[in-house]
Amino acid sequence: MVQNVSFRYAGDQPWIYKDLDFGIDLETRVALVGPNGVGKSTLLKLLEGELTVTEGMIRRHNHLKIGRYHQHLKEWLDLSESAVTHLLKCFPDTGGEEAMRRALGQFGLTGKQQICPMQNLSEGQRCRVVFAWLSWNSPHLLLLDEPTNHLDMETIDALAEAVNGFPGGMVLVSHDFRLISQVNCEVWVCQNSRVEKWEGDILSYKQYLQDTMKPPKKSKKKNASKKN
């Protein structure tokens, strides 16, 4: 529960959010959209508890397990390790090497990709390691912050299919309208320190952006000179 929440980073800094009031449950499917810099990623950090609200309260169920994917999550990977070694360190008591290999295989990493140092993997392949780690955590609520960075079209389509099959709740931040259009979710707009439900799908929001960003038509200047 997000109850009368306001947030700003410090002192007299401008408010990022004011008087937010909404709930999220295991059936919630939301895509957060809005201009850059309005605080979409900040809201995910508040929901997870990485940031503390300035005013109000966020109440989480005691047994809620949140899985957050964010743009910099790959930075905590030890690139000298293999993907299998990394997952075994994270989950030492959950089935051993074969289980970790199967988990990575489900996300498209096979053969030598699983056992070579991760520094030899591409950015997209490292993202797959993180997705495998996230999946093995079995969260109830997914918070996805720009998950399509470094992913190809085929992987984005697979991600959309996986998200649609996920049985829990989800809050997605993405500029990728292709992904959002494939995911069965509501659209919430973050703007002017508020979060408001968009009455329509992502395509209608995209059209709205296109209409509001069109340059005004130039009026034709009439010849004011008088004929003699």
Automatic annotation (TrEMBL):
Keyword Zinc on entry: no
Keywords of the record: ATP-binding, Nucleotide-binding, Repeat
GO molecular function terms noted in the UniProt entry: ATP binding; ATP hydrolysis activity
Pfam families xrefs: ABC_tran
CDD domains hit by this protein: ABCF_EF-3
InterPro entries for this protein: AAA+_ATPase, ABC_transporter-like_ATP-bd, ABCF, P-loop_NTPase
All copies of domain ABC transporter, residue ranges: 2-224
SMART domains named in the record: AAA
Gene3D superfamilies xref list: P-loop containing nucleotide triphosphate hydrolases
Protein family per UniProt: Belongs to the ABC transporter superfamily. ABCF family. EF3 subfamily.
Protein name as catalogued: ATP-binding cassette sub-family F member 2-like
Organism of this sequence: Oopsacas minuta
Organism classification: Eukaryota, Metazoa, Porifera, Hexactinellida, Hexasterophora
